[in-house]
Each structure stands twice: as C-alpha cells, then as structure tokens.
C-alpha cells in the first residue's frame, strides 16, 4: 500500500471541529459557519501559517464535500410549491438577473477588469439556497408566501447557474451543441433512475425491507442516497460535465421521487449529519487553504474590485426582487433582494473552475470569493434586521394567528 501523508487531513478535520465549537462560545458574534471555515482555512494554508497544502486526499474529500453541498441544495427544492405564479416569478426574475449580469460582465470585460464576461455573469446570478433556507426557517417564514417565493427564486437561480456553468465552462467543453447533447444524456439518466426509484418504491416487499433496514446498522436509505449521488457525479464527470451539476440533479431527483425523504423523521437529519458533519466543512476549509491572499493583495486593482463585485451581486440578484413588490410589499421585497444576493459556495466552485480553465486570473478569482464572503456576512444580517419587525407570517395567504381549516 503506497504511503500517503494524512497530516493535512488531520489538521483540516481538527479545524472543522474547532470552528463551530469556538463560535458557540461567543454567541453574540453571529457569523456563518462557512465563512469561519474558509477564514480558518486561509490561516492554516500557505497564505499565513503554511501548515496545510492541498494534497490528493484533501482534494478528493473537498470534491466530495462540494458534491454533498450541491446534493443537499437539490434536496431543498420543493417541487410541490415550485409551480404556477411562484415558478413564473422565479423564472422571470432569473432571466432578468442574467440580463443584468451580462451587462455588468460586459462592462467589466470592456474595462479590462475580467477576462470572461460570460463566466462572471454566470457567477453573479447564483444564490446560496443552503444559506437562506435555514435562515428563513429560523425566522418562521419558510412556509409563508414570501418565504416560498424567495426559496423558489433561489432554487431557479441555483439550478440555472449550475446549468449555464456546465454548458459554457465545463473542463471538457467541446462546443455548445455537444454540451447540449451531454446535458440531454444527464436528463435521460435522471428520468431513468427517477422512474426506477419510483417503481421500486411501489413494491410492497421492497418497501417493507427498506423500512426494516433504514434505521438498522445498514442505514439503507442513506446508502441509497449516496449511491444515487455517486452515480450522477460519476456520469457527469464521464461525459465531461461538471460534478456540481450531477450532484445538484441527484438531490433534486431524490426529492422528487422518494416521498419518504420528507416523511421519514430522521432521513434528512442523517444526510445532513453525513454532509455537514464531515464532508462539507472539509470543502470550505480546503477552499480557504486554496485562497491566494498574496495574489489578491499584490494586485491593487483586483483588491479594489471586491466592493465592485459585492455591489454587482446586489444589483444582479437584488434588482429582480422588485418584481415581487405587488405580491409581498416593499419591506419584504427589500428582504428578498438581500437574501437573493447572498452567494458563496457556487462562487467558490465556479471561480476555481474558471482559474483552472485559464479564463479567470487568480487575483480576480480570489476577489470574487472575497465578495461572496462579504455577501454572506452582510446581506443576511441586514435582511434579518428588516424581517424582525414583521408580524405573524402569512402561510398560503392565510394569517396563521387566526383560526383556519386550511391544512
């Protein structure tokens, strides 16, 4: 067996354990865990202490962490509510976002700030579904009309940004026509596996066996979810698409076809434990290790683009929220704008892909990630300050404080 150094893995996992523990000791300092983990990665990485370098084990575990993050984001898509006026508003909002992003990206490219206007435009259109959903749940707004609208918009933004990135900037890109065929192949795989899972769930014998094994040492449902994730990311990589696309679709397929995902009391908890308990923190910490502070600080022009990118995020994802004003009012529109402009994981992944393809400089890539860090730090806190004075949320248009027969 070849000898592999696991010192980096030990340090990264120790940091991933220590960060939330230390943060918990200072409850008044409310910072997102992802931000703290990236900052901790910067500290232990080559930019500061130099304790950790990205070796093969960390590279693989970080990739699995990214896949799990997008997989769990795909699980957040509620297909039951994502239709009708919600779907139309979300799609229209994303189309407007992309149009604004193309204008901003084109302007930045014209002034020589970025190399690829299209890549920057795609990066600016994303929203961190995994960040805003827990926030809405904690605020008691996830089931409200406002919360469902923001979640729908974030779902479409996440899905659209991943599709566009895979279509135009896959590492194995061979042309738009070929990429469309590959996306079609992934869609066919989703249909086949989705149909297979749905049909299998109708078998009384198989369902009984799944129920018997799901809470035993076999943890059969968790293993099945991991198999589904592995098949999709393997197929995406095989045909030259991005792993994040395969992971996101795997989560969406599982949510769509396996109704017990939502009804089983601990299934989601188990998946969250697997993802957020191990792999996802490794992704964020190793992202910090990769963060090139020297390249960012050495280029003053790149450093100056950080506030520019922050404003661009707010413009691209915030301005389309004005479409919701008639439905939810001015104050909640402001909250929606801030939440939609919150983005980090996709920026980290897309910036890394852009740098590997040579269409994004190291300094600009670091500036984009820094802007994402600022968005996750500032926008949700500002949104919460606007959200706190709100009265009891409205669920499906019904005041939850009043008696109602609506389920």
Largest sheet: 2 strands, antiparallel
Query: How would you sum up the global shape?
Result: globular
Instruction: Please state the structural category.
Output: mainly alpha
Strand order of the largest sheet: 1-2
Which whole number gives the mean pLDDT?
79
Note the beta-strand portion. under 5%
End-to-end distance: 59 Å
The overall strand count is: 2
Quaternary structure classification: single chain
- H and E order: HHHHHHHHHHHHHHHHHHHEE
Please tally the helical runs, counting DSSP H or I stretches of 4 or more residues. Answer: 19
What is the element layout, followed by pairings?
Elements: H1 7-25, H2 33-44, H3 56-75, H4 84-110, H5 117-124, H6 129-138, H7 145-169, H8 176-201, H9 204-213, H10 220-238, H11 243-257, H12 260-263, H13 267-290, H14 293-298, H15 300-318, H16 325-328, H17 330-340, H18 345-357, H19 362-387, E1 394-395, E2 398-399
Antiparallel strand pairs: 1-2
Written account of the structure:
This protein is mainly alpha-helical and 407 residues long. Helices cover 73% and strands 1% of the residues. It contains 19 helices and two strands. The protein has helices spanning 7-25, 33-44, 56-75, 84-110, 117-124, 129-138, 145-169, 176-201, 204-213, 220-238, 243-257, 260-263, 267-290, 293-298, 300-318, 325-328, 330-340, 345-357, 362-387; strands spanning 394-395, 398-399. Strands 1-2 form a two-stranded antiparallel ribbon. Helix 6 packs antiparallel against helix 7 (145-169), helix 7 runs antiparallel to helix 11 and helix 15 (300-318) packs across helix 19. The longest helix has 27 residues, at 84-110. The chain is globular and about 65 Å long. The relative contact order is 0.16.
